[in-house]
Amino acid sequence: METNNASAGGAFLLGMPSDSLAPERFSDEQQLIAQTAERFAQEEIAAASEAIERQDFTVIRGLLRRAGELGLAGVEVPEEFGGAGMDLTTSALVADHLAVQGSFSVSFGAHAGIGTLPLVHFGSAEQKARYLPKLASGEWVAAYALSEAESGSDALAMRTTATAAGDGDFALSGEKMWISNAGFADLFTVFAKLEGKVTAFLVEAATPGMATGAEEHKMGIWGSSTRALLLREARVGRGQMLGQPGEGAHIAFQILNAGRIKLGAACIGGARNLMRQTIAYAQQRHAFGRAIASYGLIEQHLATMAIELYAAECTVYRTTGLMDAAGNLEEHAAECAMVKIAASEMMDRVADLAVQIHGGNGFVRGNAAERAYRDARVNRIFEGTNEINRLLASGVLLRRAQQGRLGLMPAIQALQQAWLAPGGEAGTPLLERARQMVLLAMGSAARRHGEALAQEQEILAALTDLAMGLYAMQSAWLRDRDGLLTQAVICERMDAMETTARRLLAASSEGDELRTQLAWLRRLAKREAVDILGLRRRIGRGVIANLGYVATVG
User: Fold this and answer.
1) Which of these, 342, 302, 263, lies nearest to 485 by C-alpha position?
2) Which residues contact 440 (CB under 8 A, 6 or more apart)?
3) What is each CA distance from 452 to 119, 389, 395, 445, 509, in whole angstroms?
């Protein structure tokens, strides 16, 4: 039975919802927690940045313990186990406002996010009682061990094994790679194959047979601990199995959904903080007798930062609101993947522009822009590469449609009939035409490739880019229909979507069919010209006047 439930995963392709969660609609309690996190970040995390970058793990553990004292490390941990028992949105807010220092942000996310959440969502009552109070308080630090040298994105190809070892125990053998917090974590969620099926285990750092390798020398996030986890017949009891035998893949992928949305939130916080520092620099740095902030091209760079940050912020919190309403981590897997892609690529652009605005100073080690530039790059690899997430997002949407869980095909068929009528798009709102543009491209790709579409990586990635554009436009409009930032997001995303759709149609059709579809595309993309340079100039000057990013400028 196909559903058009407005809160279902992928429902943004079927129509515009009536509302969406946005920062202006946070509860008083959520705003208070965000303020607490921001104060802690600016007063304690930022102040310890040099020690963090030196990999002083005593300092990092102390800050994690301090986060526990403030209630920030256990936001999603149930109250009976020492946490705050709050929702994903609040947890994302904490990740957002703590992201003033890239290395610590990674350490915190690995602990409070993917390290602790497997227990929160899949642990037994006994396991929760044993470990969650220590994790929520920051007394213990958690880590998540999934990746291997030969199975980074292809996690199910792991070679780590679990074998029965007598007395109900299991022996774990293998090597996990690139494990954040490995140098000082107390508890690892380790994934291994038990009789060929992926199974999760809770493994304490003191377990005989378990060790860590040397610290990796990384391009960025120097202060975070990244090591291999070495398992040599490491013995764990039956009570250390998380969930049921063979349930590990389900656990891993659901936790990665949460990890992706929180990574998106951290990218927002990192970008906002860097933008604030960059504006301050542009105001005090003078060239040719005036502050460089007063020059048009610098204003345009700052406008780009603000527009990209606004779009990412809108989609992150729209998605956390949907996930909290759904009550599970699976329903909005496609949206989580899109948010992760968009936010990580936004952070890259913001960091790049920050270096450019800082000029030569931005290229010197120790400058905040230089460090952010290095730190940002890993976000496009974390939690599944952006390539994998592009395949995942469109793949999930199309699979839900095939399963009858998303009324995508009937919507495409209905629109195809409507498009046959001359002028059928007349009076149709721009966002609705953008939605129809996505359906046009999806329908064309599905007809051309059929079941083989799952193997057409370039097509799937482009379909995800189209869906991401629509999702961002809708999210911005739902937050502030008439705002300058919303206008800019809609204008620029529509331009990009039209180009992507044209390429997709050309790859999926030919002859008369292609000419017909391109004619439909032109009708859907038709719109009045917008003075985007003037609009961006107002946005750039607005954020300069506000000394940083704000959602409403003008």
Assistant:
1) 302
2) 412, 415, 419, 501, 505, 517, 520, 521, 524
3) 38, 19, 12, 10, 15
How many other C-beta atoms lie within 10 A of the C-beta of residue 531? 10
CA distances from 364 to 13, 290, 356, 519 (A): 45, 23, 12, 51
pLDDT band of 416, cuts 50, 70, 90: confident
Sign for the pseudo-dihedral over CA of 526, 528, 534, 539: negative
pLDDT value of position 151: 77
Contact predicate 323/117, CB 8 Å:
no
Instruction: Tell me how far apart the alpha carbons of residues 374 and 343 are, in angstroms, rounded to a whole number.
Output: 16
**pLDDT tens digits for 462-496?**
999 999 999 999 999 999 999 999 999 999 999 99
Number of domains the chain contains: 4
Taking 50 as the threshold, does the pLDDT of residue 3 lie above it?
A: no
267 lies in the same domain as 149: no
Residue 176, pLDDT above cutoff 70: yes
Cβ neighbours, 10 Å, residue 527:
14
Sign of the alpha-carbon dihedral angle for 30, 74, 67, 270: negative
Q: Are residues 18 and 82 in the same domain?
A: yes
Query: How many whole angstroms separate alpha carbon 369 and alpha carbon 358?
Result: 7
Question: Which pLDDT band, with edges at 50, 70 and 90, does 422 fall under?
Answer: low
CA dist 137 and 71 (Å) reads 8
315 and 365 assigned to the same domain: yes
Structure tokens at 490: 């809609």
Query: Tokens 């293998």 appear where?
Result: 174
Residue-range definition of the domain harbouring residue 199? 144-245
> Catalytic annotation on 383?
yes
Of residues 38, 148, 299, 383, which has the active-site annotation? 383
CB 468 within 8 A of CB 341: yes
Structure tokens belonging to residue 395 = 């793949």
Kindly state whether residue 469 falls inside one of the protein's structural domains.
yes
DSSP 215: P
Distance of alpha carbon 346 from alpha carbon 484, whole angstroms = 19
| Residue whose C-alpha is closest to residue 98's, from 153, 42, 146 | 42
pLDDT at 7: 81
* Same domain assignment for residues 430 and 452: yes
Do both 129 and 155 map to the same domain?
no
Within-domain flag for 230: yes
